[in-house]
Amino acid sequence: MKKAIVLLSGGIDSCTTLAIANSEGFECYAISFDYGQRHKIELESAKKVAKNIGVREHLIISFDLRKIGGSALTSDIDVPKKESEGIPVTYVPARNTIFLSFAIAWAEILQCPNIFIGANVVDYSGYPDCRPEYLEAFEKMANLATKISVESNFKFKIQAPLIYLTKSQIIKKGLELGLDYSLTWSCYDPKGHPDNPIPCLKCPSCLFRLKGFEEVGIKDPLIK
């Protein structure tokens, strides 16, 4: 069976990407990251979705980007409560580059050429490491910098099936594939008790999510 590594945060985009890879017949290996993010609850969602879909293995890598900071997700900066112009403070410096580097390392060991990421340039927050030209550049770098590519005809391919889809189109695709969105998490600034968090409904990630479900014409299953 052909293999795929899927970056899995626990949010709508990454979980839908996992569902797509699974539906295309890939044996899926999910990789998630505990990097000191304030919304660490997303990792519980990633675990639930990985189990629900039935991945071959789910790897969670831990490291602390709070030591670097510079983002509302990894330092004491307020999470914005509306969409912002330009690159927002929720951008985490070099996050996708770090994530993809771990994914490529694991992929080299597994001899897995396919790396799936839920990057999107339509309904997103302006992150520079979600652009197609960035993903193309990383793919080229991966094929220059790994032993398996240098010593053989093995080539990595970075796949971003959601890259040009709106949030509503992404949700529709996931629903078609039977993805249970009640297992996912999007909020950057969760409220309530840590054991029973609720989304703030005001941060950019919540707003994109709410807009997507509204356009599909169904209620977000996280909203009670």
Description:
- With 224 residues, the protein is of the alpha/beta class.
- It has a single domain, classed as HUPs (Rossmann fold).
- It is 37% helix and 11% strand.
- The protein has seven helices and five strands; from the N terminus they run βαβαβαβααβαα.
- A five-stranded parallel sheet has the order 3-2-1-4-5, with helices on both faces.
- Strand 2, helix 2 and strand 3 form a beta-alpha-beta unit.
- Helix 1 runs parallel beside helix 2, helix 1 packs across helix 6 and helix 6 packs across helix 7.
- The radius of gyration is 17 Å and the shape is globular.
- The chain starts with a strand and ends in an 8-residue tail after the last helix.
